[in-house]
Specification:
The chain is mostly helical and about 80 residues long. It has one domain. It is built from two helices and no strands. Helix 1 packs antiparallel against helix 2.
Length: about 80
């Protein structure tokens, strides 16, 4: 693999990671919004806990993707 191809592949992966990261953040925000909007409703405790867990999982995935994004950016900087 030559340097240009490596850089192109890294940039494409970075684009995919950033797209996935945006989607995860949006999903986590929506889940948190649902939790906030339903605070006053009589809610089944397991359902409420499941929403919180889902939001936390999305946020954890986002953190992992942020780390991958930072790694990719560093690799690109080293190539340039």
């Amino acid at each position: 693999m030559d340097g240009d191809h490596d850089e192109t592949a890294l940039r494409e992966e970075l684009r995919r990671v950033e797209t996935d990261l945006d989607e995860l953040r949006r999903t986590a925000r929506q889940l948190r919004q649902q939790i906030g909007e339903r605070w006053f409703e009589p809610t089944d405790a397991p359902e409420h806990a499941a929403l919180i867990t889902a939001a936390e999982e999305q946020e954890a995935f986002a953190e992992a993707l942020e780390a991958r994004r930072d790694d990719l950016k560093q690799l690109l900087d080293e190539q340039c």
